[in-house]
Design goal:
Helices cover 33% and strands 24% of the residues. By secondary structure, the protein is of the alpha/beta class. The strands form two sheets. The chain has a seven-stranded mixed β-sheet, sandwiched between helices. Strands 9-8-11-10-12-13-14 form a seven-stranded mixed β-sheet, sandwiched between helices. Strand 5, helix 3 and strand 6 form a beta-alpha-beta unit. Helix 3 packs parallel to helix 4, helix 5 crosses helix 9 and helix 6 runs parallel beside helix 7.
Protein backbone atom coordinates (compact mmCIF):
# COMPACT_ATOMS: atom_id res chain seq x y z
CA UNK A 1 0.00 0.00 0.00
CA UNK A 2 0.90 3.69 0.07
CA UNK A 3 -0.65 6.95 1.23
CA UNK A 4 -2.38 9.69 -0.77
CA UNK A 5 -1.05 8.38 -4.13
CA UNK A 6 -1.50 4.95 -5.68
CA UNK A 7 -0.91 3.05 -8.93
CA UNK A 8 -4.46 3.72 -10.10
CA UNK A 9 -4.32 7.49 -9.45
CA UNK A 10 -5.35 9.36 -12.61
CA UNK A 11 -3.51 12.67 -12.83
CA UNK A 12 -4.05 15.94 -14.68
CA UNK A 13 -1.40 18.66 -15.04
CA UNK A 14 -2.41 22.31 -14.70
CA UNK A 15 0.11 24.26 -16.72
CA UNK A 16 1.23 21.21 -18.70
CA UNK A 17 2.03 23.23 -21.83
CA UNK A 18 4.51 25.54 -20.08
CA UNK A 19 8.23 24.83 -19.98
CA UNK A 20 8.25 23.30 -16.48
CA UNK A 21 4.98 21.51 -17.04
CA UNK A 22 6.23 19.93 -20.27
CA UNK A 23 9.54 18.82 -18.74
CA UNK A 24 8.06 17.23 -15.67
CA UNK A 25 5.04 15.72 -17.41
CA UNK A 26 7.51 13.87 -19.61
CA UNK A 27 9.38 12.62 -16.54
CA UNK A 28 6.20 11.62 -14.72
CA UNK A 29 4.98 9.67 -17.75
CA UNK A 30 8.36 7.96 -18.06
CA UNK A 31 8.17 6.85 -14.43
CA UNK A 32 4.75 5.24 -14.87
CA UNK A 33 2.37 7.93 -13.63
CA UNK A 34 -1.06 7.85 -15.25
CA UNK A 35 -1.13 11.36 -16.73
CA UNK A 36 -4.51 11.61 -18.45
CA UNK A 37 -4.84 15.30 -19.36
CA UNK A 38 -3.45 18.78 -19.24
CA UNK A 39 -5.30 22.03 -18.53
CA UNK A 40 -4.77 25.32 -20.35
CA UNK A 41 -7.73 27.56 -21.31
CA UNK A 42 -5.82 28.99 -24.28
CA UNK A 43 -5.02 25.57 -25.76
CA UNK A 44 -8.24 23.67 -25.09
CA UNK A 45 -8.99 21.03 -27.70
CA UNK A 46 -5.37 20.42 -28.63
CA UNK A 47 -3.02 17.68 -27.50
CA UNK A 48 0.66 17.40 -26.66
CA UNK A 49 2.85 14.51 -27.77
CA UNK A 50 5.50 13.28 -25.35
CA UNK A 51 8.29 10.90 -26.33
CA UNK A 52 8.35 8.53 -23.36
CA UNK A 53 11.58 6.82 -22.36
CA UNK A 54 10.81 4.65 -19.30
CA UNK A 55 13.01 4.87 -16.20
CA UNK A 56 12.80 4.02 -12.52
CA UNK A 57 11.24 1.01 -10.73
CA UNK A 58 8.29 0.88 -13.15
CA UNK A 59 10.36 1.03 -16.33
CA UNK A 60 9.58 -2.54 -17.35
CA UNK A 61 5.84 -1.85 -17.30
CA UNK A 62 5.90 1.52 -19.08
CA UNK A 63 5.52 1.61 -22.86
CA UNK A 64 8.15 3.64 -24.66
CA UNK A 65 7.43 5.89 -27.59
CA UNK A 66 5.07 8.78 -28.33
CA UNK A 67 2.15 9.50 -25.99
CA UNK A 68 -0.58 12.01 -26.83
CA UNK A 69 -2.07 13.84 -23.84
CA UNK A 70 -5.23 15.92 -24.46
CA UNK A 71 -5.54 19.49 -23.22
CA UNK A 72 -8.79 20.81 -21.74
CA UNK A 73 -9.87 24.33 -20.96
CA UNK A 74 -10.84 23.73 -17.34
CA UNK A 75 -10.14 21.26 -14.56
CA UNK A 76 -13.84 20.33 -14.45
CA UNK A 77 -13.79 19.41 -18.14
CA UNK A 78 -10.62 17.37 -17.74
CA UNK A 79 -12.04 15.49 -14.75
CA UNK A 80 -15.33 14.78 -16.50
CA UNK A 81 -13.55 13.42 -19.58
CA UNK A 82 -10.88 11.36 -17.84
CA UNK A 83 -12.03 10.49 -14.32
CA UNK A 84 -8.96 12.17 -12.84
CA UNK A 85 -8.71 12.42 -9.05
CA UNK A 86 -5.29 14.11 -8.73
CA UNK A 87 -4.01 17.40 -10.14
CA UNK A 88 -0.48 18.75 -10.07
CA UNK A 89 0.00 22.46 -10.53
CA UNK A 90 2.85 23.96 -12.58
CA UNK A 91 1.82 27.60 -13.01
CA UNK A 92 3.56 30.90 -12.17
CA UNK A 93 3.03 32.28 -8.65
CA UNK A 94 0.67 35.04 -9.80
CA UNK A 95 -1.80 32.49 -11.16
CA UNK A 96 -1.40 29.76 -8.55
CA UNK A 97 -4.24 30.86 -6.27
CA UNK A 98 -6.81 30.91 -9.08
CA UNK A 99 -5.59 27.57 -10.46
CA UNK A 100 -5.70 25.91 -7.04
CA UNK A 101 -9.18 27.20 -6.25
CA UNK A 102 -10.40 26.06 -9.67
CA UNK A 103 -9.21 22.51 -8.98
CA UNK A 104 -10.72 22.51 -5.49
CA UNK A 105 -14.08 23.81 -6.73
CA UNK A 106 -14.06 21.16 -9.47
CA UNK A 107 -13.95 18.46 -6.79
CA UNK A 108 -10.41 17.16 -7.20
CA UNK A 109 -9.46 14.75 -4.41
CA UNK A 110 -5.73 15.53 -4.22
CA UNK A 111 -3.96 18.69 -5.36
CA UNK A 112 -0.16 18.96 -5.50
CA UNK A 113 1.15 22.54 -5.76
CA UNK A 114 4.77 22.59 -6.93
CA UNK A 115 5.04 26.36 -7.50
CA UNK A 116 7.40 28.34 -5.27
CA UNK A 117 7.25 32.04 -4.50
CA UNK A 118 3.48 32.18 -3.96
CA UNK A 119 2.50 35.10 -1.67
CA UNK A 120 1.57 33.82 1.79
CA UNK A 121 -1.79 35.61 1.56
CA UNK A 122 -2.62 33.60 -1.57
CA UNK A 123 -1.42 30.32 -0.05
CA UNK A 124 -3.50 30.94 3.06
CA UNK A 125 -6.59 31.48 0.91
CA UNK A 126 -6.34 28.31 -1.16
CA UNK A 127 -5.07 26.10 1.69
CA UNK A 128 -8.08 27.18 3.75
CA UNK A 129 -10.34 26.56 0.75
CA UNK A 130 -8.93 23.06 0.38
CA UNK A 131 -9.44 22.27 4.06
CA UNK A 132 -13.07 23.43 4.02
CA UNK A 133 -13.76 21.33 0.90
CA UNK A 134 -12.04 18.17 2.11
CA UNK A 135 -9.29 18.27 -0.52
CA UNK A 136 -5.85 16.80 0.22
CA UNK A 137 -3.48 19.63 -0.74
CA UNK A 138 0.27 18.98 -0.80
CA UNK A 139 2.54 22.03 -0.98
CA UNK A 140 3.02 24.73 -2.09
CA UNK A 141 6.73 25.06 -2.84
CA UNK A 142 7.31 21.33 -2.66
CA UNK A 143 8.74 18.49 -4.78
CA UNK A 144 5.45 16.60 -4.65
CA UNK A 145 4.72 13.02 -3.70
CA UNK A 146 6.00 9.66 -4.93
CA UNK A 147 4.90 6.13 -4.11
CA UNK A 148 7.83 4.20 -5.66
CA UNK A 149 6.76 1.54 -8.10
CA UNK A 150 3.26 3.02 -8.29
CA UNK A 151 3.06 6.71 -9.17
CA UNK A 152 5.08 9.91 -9.07
CA UNK A 153 3.44 13.36 -9.00
CA UNK A 154 5.79 16.33 -8.99
CA UNK A 155 9.50 16.75 -9.62
CA UNK A 156 11.03 13.93 -7.55
CA UNK A 157 13.44 11.70 -9.50
CA UNK A 158 11.89 8.24 -9.78
CA UNK A 159 15.13 6.30 -10.15
CA UNK A 160 16.85 7.10 -6.84
CA UNK A 161 14.98 4.64 -4.63
CA UNK A 162 12.78 1.55 -4.59
CA UNK A 163 9.49 0.40 -3.15
CA UNK A 164 9.87 -0.69 0.46
CA UNK A 165 8.89 -0.34 4.11
CA UNK A 166 9.67 3.25 5.12
CA UNK A 167 7.44 6.32 5.04
CA UNK A 168 9.12 9.69 4.50
CA UNK A 169 7.75 13.18 5.15
CA UNK A 170 9.99 16.20 4.64
CA UNK A 171 9.95 19.98 4.47
CA UNK A 172 12.97 19.95 2.15
CA UNK A 173 12.99 18.68 -1.41
CA UNK A 174 16.76 18.19 -1.57
CA UNK A 175 16.86 16.30 1.73
CA UNK A 176 13.94 14.17 0.55
CA UNK A 177 16.05 13.06 -2.40
CA UNK A 178 19.10 12.42 -0.26
CA UNK A 179 17.18 10.29 2.25
CA UNK A 180 15.52 8.32 -0.53
CA UNK A 181 18.93 7.57 -2.01
CA UNK A 182 20.57 6.77 1.34
CA UNK A 183 17.88 4.15 2.08
CA UNK A 184 17.27 2.96 -1.48
CA UNK A 185 18.12 -0.65 -0.65
CA UNK A 186 15.28 -0.76 1.89
CA UNK A 187 12.87 1.42 -0.06
CA UNK A 188 9.76 3.45 0.70
CA UNK A 189 5.99 3.16 0.67
CA UNK A 190 5.50 6.88 0.02
CA UNK A 191 7.75 9.95 0.13
CA UNK A 192 6.04 13.32 0.63
CA UNK A 193 7.63 16.72 0.32
CA UNK A 194 5.26 19.00 2.22
CA UNK A 195 7.11 22.23 1.42
CA UNK A 196 8.86 24.79 3.55
CA UNK A 197 6.49 27.76 3.28
CA UNK A 198 4.84 29.22 6.40
CA UNK A 199 1.44 27.88 5.25
CA UNK A 200 1.18 24.39 3.74
CA UNK A 201 -1.75 22.11 3.03
CA UNK A 202 -0.35 18.87 4.43
CA UNK A 203 1.56 18.87 7.70
CA UNK A 204 3.98 16.46 9.33
CA UNK A 205 1.11 15.32 11.53
CA UNK A 206 -1.16 14.59 8.55
CA UNK A 207 1.52 12.38 7.03
CA UNK A 208 2.39 10.68 10.32
CA UNK A 209 -1.27 9.83 10.89
CA UNK A 210 -1.57 8.32 7.41
CA UNK A 211 1.65 6.31 7.79
CA UNK A 212 0.49 5.06 11.19
CA UNK A 213 -2.62 3.65 9.49
CA UNK A 214 -0.79 2.16 6.50
CA UNK A 215 -0.11 -1.55 7.12
CA UNK A 216 2.85 -1.62 4.74
CA UNK A 217 4.73 1.24 6.42
CA UNK A 218 6.87 -0.15 9.24
CA UNK A 219 8.55 3.09 10.32
CA UNK A 220 8.75 6.78 9.42
CA UNK A 221 11.56 9.23 8.72
CA UNK A 222 10.57 12.84 9.39
CA UNK A 223 12.67 15.74 8.10
CA UNK A 224 12.10 19.23 9.45
CA UNK A 225 14.02 22.46 9.53
CA UNK A 226 14.48 25.58 11.62
CA UNK A 227 11.59 28.02 11.94
CA UNK A 228 8.04 27.67 13.19
CA UNK A 229 6.81 24.99 15.58
CA UNK A 230 5.62 22.23 13.24
CA UNK A 231 8.18 19.75 14.56
CA UNK A 232 7.28 20.46 18.19
CA UNK A 233 3.61 19.89 17.41
CA UNK A 234 4.51 16.67 15.60
CA UNK A 235 6.45 15.53 18.67
CA UNK A 236 3.35 15.96 20.82
CA UNK A 237 1.25 14.01 18.33
CA UNK A 238 3.83 11.21 18.16
CA UNK A 239 3.84 10.88 21.94
CA UNK A 240 0.06 10.52 22.03
CA UNK A 241 -0.76 8.51 18.89
CA UNK A 242 2.22 6.93 17.12
CA UNK A 243 3.03 3.25 17.66
CA UNK A 244 5.54 2.88 14.82
CA UNK A 245 9.14 4.07 15.27
CA UNK A 246 10.01 7.54 14.00
CA UNK A 247 13.48 8.94 13.39
CA UNK A 248 14.05 12.55 12.47
CA UNK A 249 16.45 15.12 11.10
CA UNK A 250 16.16 18.88 11.58
CA UNK A 251 17.99 20.96 9.00
CA UNK A 252 19.81 23.98 10.38
CA UNK A 253 21.95 22.71 13.26
CA UNK A 254 24.94 24.57 11.84
CA UNK A 255 23.14 27.61 10.42
CA UNK A 256 24.87 30.82 11.58
CA UNK A 257 22.70 33.11 13.70
CA UNK A 258 20.84 35.60 11.53
CA UNK A 259 21.56 33.66 8.33
CA UNK A 260 18.73 33.69 5.81
CA UNK A 261 17.66 30.17 4.81
CA UNK A 262 16.14 29.13 1.51
CA UNK A 263 12.58 28.46 2.70
CA UNK A 264 10.19 31.24 3.58
CA UNK A 265 9.17 29.36 6.72
CA UNK A 266 12.72 28.96 8.03
CA UNK A 267 12.60 31.96 10.32
CA UNK A 268 13.99 31.73 13.85
CA UNK A 269 12.68 34.13 16.47
CA UNK A 270 14.97 34.22 19.52
CA UNK A 271 15.30 30.71 20.91
CA UNK A 272 12.03 29.61 19.29
CA UNK A 273 12.27 27.49 16.18
CA UNK A 274 15.92 26.50 16.48
CA UNK A 275 17.14 23.08 15.42
CA UNK A 276 18.30 22.35 18.97
CA UNK A 277 14.88 23.16 20.43
CA UNK A 278 13.13 20.97 17.87
CA UNK A 279 15.53 18.07 18.42
CA UNK A 280 15.02 18.36 22.18
CA UNK A 281 11.23 18.19 21.79
CA UNK A 282 11.45 15.13 19.55
CA UNK A 283 14.00 13.30 21.66
CA UNK A 284 11.88 13.93 24.76
CA UNK A 285 9.16 11.70 23.28
CA UNK A 286 11.52 8.96 22.15
CA UNK A 287 12.26 10.06 18.60
CA UNK A 288 15.91 9.60 17.70
CA UNK A 289 17.24 12.68 15.88
CA UNK A 290 20.26 12.51 13.60
CA UNK A 291 22.67 15.43 13.40
CA UNK A 292 23.33 14.77 9.70
CA UNK A 293 21.20 13.15 6.99
CA UNK A 294 23.56 10.16 6.81
CA UNK A 295 23.39 9.65 10.56
CA UNK A 296 19.60 9.82 10.34
CA UNK A 297 19.62 7.10 7.68
CA UNK A 298 21.76 4.96 9.99
CA UNK A 299 19.25 5.49 12.81
CA UNK A 300 16.47 4.39 10.46
CA UNK A 301 18.33 1.17 9.67
CA UNK A 302 18.84 0.49 13.36
CA UNK A 303 15.14 1.09 14.09
CA UNK A 304 14.09 -1.33 11.35
CA UNK A 305 16.54 -3.96 12.59
CA UNK A 306 14.89 -3.85 16.00
CA UNK A 307 11.38 -4.54 14.68
Amino acid sequence: MSIFLHADSRVIVQGMTGAEGMKHTSRMLASGTQIVAGVNPRKAGTSVTFDVEPYGPMASSVHSGPRDIPVYGTVAEAMAATGATVSVLFVPPAFAKAAAIEAIDAGIETLVVITEGIPVQDSTAFVTHALTHGVRLIGPNCPGIISPGQSNVGITPADITNKGRIGLVSKSGTLTYQMMFELRDIGFTTCIGIGGDPVVGTTHIDALEAFESDPDTDMVVMIGEIGGDAEERAARWISEHMTKPVVAYVAGFTAPEGKTMGHAGAIVSGSSGTAAAKAQALEAVGVKVGRTPSQTALLAREALAQL
